[in-house]
């Protein structure tokens, strides 16, 4: 399976929601996703991220369409936003309901939102610790899915407003775990 990342402003709402035909609903969905993109950017700024932050050439603290499947059809598209700064990381994903790999487009869709911390005891061998998360129930309409994406970013903004690495670390069930054994070759 191949994939291609396209920043939200350069993509098409129809990729994520192929059956979206009503022009008014299409415009409302696009507005909600653009607003969510701006809110995710604010979350990054609140956490101290640089406005041009990138990871492997992908802009952080912004949404992007990720087109999945064989080219040129790309039968499935997800919407992903990742960001944060230093020790605190956030993710928002709108994808077909279920788990990866995604082989068919929605409906239904689900929105997954997570807050994670970098590992405090084994930063090389451990990918980080999830400290808070929310997954929506399956969503049947594009408008409701876009509304849930927007709500997810607003939740992150409010949830992290008065948090620091230290205050979040208190909620980290894996804080201070022993380092993973190292291989000896």
What would you say about this model in short?
The chain is an alpha+beta fold and 185 residues long. Helix content is 28%, strand content 28%. A hairpin with a 2-residue loop joins strand 2 and strand 3.
Question: Can you give a write-up of this model?
Answer:
With 185 residues, the protein is of the alpha+beta class. Helices cover 28% and strands 28% of the residues. It is built from four helices and eight strands; from the N terminus they run βααβββββββαα. It has helices spanning 13-16, 23-46, 142-159, 165-169, and strands at residues 3-7, 54-55, 58-59, 62-68, 76-85, 88-96, 109-117, 129-135. The strands form two sheets. A six-stranded antiparallel β-sheet has the order 1-4-5-6-7-8. β2 (54-55) and β3 form a beta hairpin. α2 (23-46) runs parallel beside α3 (142-159). It is globular. The two termini are 32 Å apart. The model has no long low-confidence stretch (mean pLDDT 84).
Primary descriptors:
185 residues; alpha+beta; six-stranded antiparallel beta sheet; 4 helices; globular
Q: Level of helix content?
A: 25-40%
Number of strands: 8
Measured between the Cα atoms of the first and last residue, the distance is 32 Å
Give a short account of the largest sheet: 6 strands, antiparallel
Put simply, the count of helices is 4
Strand content: 25-35%
The arrangement of helices and strands along the chain is EHHEEEEEEEHH
Derived structural class: alpha+beta
The geometry reads as: globular
Radius of gyration: 17 Å
**pLDDT averaged over residues:** 84
The strand order across the widest sheet is 1-4-5-6-7-8
Uncertain runs are none
């Amino acid at each position: 399976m191949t994939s291609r990342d396209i920043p939200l402003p350069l993509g098409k709402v129809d990729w994520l929601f192929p059956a979206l035909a009503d022009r008014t609903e299409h415009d409302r969905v696009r507005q909600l996703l653009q607003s969510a993109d701006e809110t995710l950017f604010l979350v990054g700024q609140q956490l101290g991220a640089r406005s041009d932050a990138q990871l492997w050439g992908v802009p952080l603290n912004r949404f992007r369409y990720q087109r999945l499947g064989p080219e040129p059809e790309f039968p499935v598209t997800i919407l992903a936003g990742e960001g944060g700064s230093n020790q605190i990381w956030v993710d928002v994903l709108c994808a077909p309901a279920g788990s990866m790999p995604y082989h068919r487009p929605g409906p239904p869709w689900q929105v997954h939102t997570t807050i994670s911390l970098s590992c405090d005891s084994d930063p090389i061998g451990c990918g980080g610790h999830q400290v808070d998360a929310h997954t929506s129930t399956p969503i049947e309409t594009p408008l409701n899915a876009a509304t849930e994406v927007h709500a997810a970013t607003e939740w992150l903004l409010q949830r992290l407003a008065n948090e620091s690495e230290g205050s979040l670390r208190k909620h980290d069930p894996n804080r201070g775990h022993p380092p993973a054994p190292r291989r000896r070759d």
